[in-house]
Amino acid sequence: MTEPGTVLITGPTRNLGRHAVLAMAERPRGRRPDLLLVGRAGRDLTAVADEARARGARVHEIGCDLSSLADVRAAAATVRDLLAAGAVRPLRALVANAGTMSADTRLASPDGYELTFAVNYLAHAQLVGDLLGSLTAPARIVLLGSNTYHANVWRKLLGVPEARWADPVELARPATGEQAPGMAAAGVAYSNAKLAILYYAHELQRHARAGVNVSVFEPGWMPGTALGRGAPASLQAVSRALGRVPGVSTPRRSGPLLAAMALDDTWAHLRDGAFVVKTRLTEVQPVAHDRDRERRLWEATAELLARAGASR
Ligand SMILES: NC(=O)c1ccc[n+]([C@@H]2O[C@H](COP(=O)([O-])OP(=O)(O)OC[C@H]3O[C@@H](n4cnc5c(N)ncnc54)[C@H](OP(=O)(O)O)[C@@H]3O)[C@@H](O)[C@H]2O)c1
Question: What is the pairing mode between strands 135-144 and 212-218?
Answer without folding.
Answer: parallel
